[in-house]
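Form 12-C: Joint structure prediction
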Amino acid sequence: MTLERAETVFWIAHLPMMVLFCAGMWVVLAGWRRGGSSRRPSGAPWRRMWLLVKGFIAEAWFNRRLLRNSFWRWLTHFMLLSGFMLTMGLSGISALSDKLLIHVFHLEHVDWIAMWVNQDHPVTAVLNEIGALLMTIGLLFFVVRRYLFRIPQLRTGPMDTWMVVGLGLILLSGWVTELVRLNSAHAGSTACYAFVAYPMAPLLNGLQLDWNSAYAWMYLIHGLLTSIVIVTIPFSKFMHVIAGALVTVGRQVEQEVGHAEA
Amino acid sequence: MRKLDLKRFTTMQLMELDACTRCGECITWCPTYQEKQALEAITPLGKIESTRSFFRAQQLGWLGRLLGLRGATEERLAGFSEGTYDCTMCGRCGVVCPVNISTRDLWISMRETLVDQGVYPESLDHLREMVTKHYNLSGDANEDRLIWSRNLPQVPTGVGGKTEAQVVYFVGCVASFYPQSYAVPQSIVEVMEAAGVDYMTLGGEEWCCGFPLMIAGMGDAAEESVRHNAEAVRRTGAELLVTGCPSCYHTLKHEYPRVLGEPLGFEVRHITELMEQLIDSGKLQFEPLEETVTYHDPCDLGRSTGVYDAPRNVIRAIPGVSFVEMEHHHDYSLCCGGGGDVEMADKDLSAAVAKRRVEEAQATGARMLLSACQQCNRTLAGAARLEKARLRVMDVAQLAARQLKTT
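Section 2 - Result
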């Protein structure tokens, strides 16, 4: 299979799945909207924005409450969320640069814009690896705690298992895809700071594989797995990533506004 | 399948149901689950899972059943009700929740939904009748609200003899009608007299604040009480309302403006906050006491309203007192077992939670366990008696009155 064909198949499968995802999110949001009105934080818009940003950093990302209770849980959460935000952020910037700044505004000659669509750029390559590595280690901590140590307070059900399996498959297939890509004709050699997949890729060089075809397959598998997991977000534990961040920040803002008014 | 009313929950609360990460931190800290581990429905996580499943199954219909969501059948609602009403509403789960879920408010909304469905402990019907017909918890004639003052050596003018004053002392049902708590309002009056506070009580015009109904999920039935009490206090022209009951305090301060939809027009403070101010201004002074004491944070005063320092500062103002903290204090304080109307639903559970707290107090080596809540004092004193603990349980106001410096 060629990479072009893999991309075509991916988009044919991905787009309907994104429609399903949006439908699921619409159902969830419609459910939320059926509730009674919540108290809206008062004050100037800039102050509300500042409280939201502060709340997100302190309570959602660095989660002070979790740190107070358990360092290892905090570390797991921090690595998973930081890795997730970094990789998603890079994907977002890459898509924005590619589809808008380069295709519409033809800014490919601007180095700091072009770098975001180049997977082998020293900066993007190392950032991508850091993000994926943080998520991988975080997920391993999560698995050890929930499935090996079996901490009594945890109630492990299908939702938890699906989260581990879904995220695990995305990460595993992601690493394999990258290793295969680096041995195919699609790789560059400029990622001088990357420290995981780039040093490992030459070790697999001896394998007698059609690397270009393998890369196309892995691209497709990784992409489809990601799409499948995304479709399940609205009705699975993955939803807590969105709802949790909103609630954490919202409650913090409510409390701060409440204290200020008191 | 029963149809549940989502309007009982705010949008934020419905989001909270999806925000739960199933981390189980709440389970570790739940005082009732520690005593009743066979009942999974009692866990905060279990309650959230059930509610989410009920709502989503209702929303998605056949698709929900296909996804394995469990709708609100009578049998499931009954189990859910047992778990929900065995909660002391202490709010400890909310303190440790990493996504900051406002659990206590969530449990109240769940109870309101169960009341709508008619699936709640029968004893709560009795409670509703007492509060809406007799205007107090005990069912006694409400005109007898000042019965606690009858054996005072001299009944001060502030107790039933004034129609206007700067401060209204809101006594609360437990202090007014439960003889083992009479010493608390007596002490509060003694302290205010000593400090020269211009205060009055509302006598029979004081109705139950509505808190027991609100946390039972019967908040609609409390509205009449809310309006009556607010109006009764406004008529006196008082600028300040003080109360020794943390539940009344929380309800008057936070729930009344919400129910009324407008500011109260007077300030609400707990008696320990007033005492702290009187000490600072030199109007209250104490005789020394060589004793080791510890303090139990009432849930409605501490976690729910954020008053932690005032009672401690009053205790520390007594010369000679050696103050020690228990293992769990402030935000993490254990519940006394007397909250959330649990005593009505499950007396043994309430006693078991109280026993654990008394054991913690004993471990400090203190000879005196202080609190700032009549209900906590009552529950803890009962547990101390059962445990034959060498521990005297009393209110901060009682100790303050006992140590008052007479000039």
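Section 3 - Comments
The first helix of chain B runs from residue 11 to 19. Chain B has a mean pLDDT of 94.
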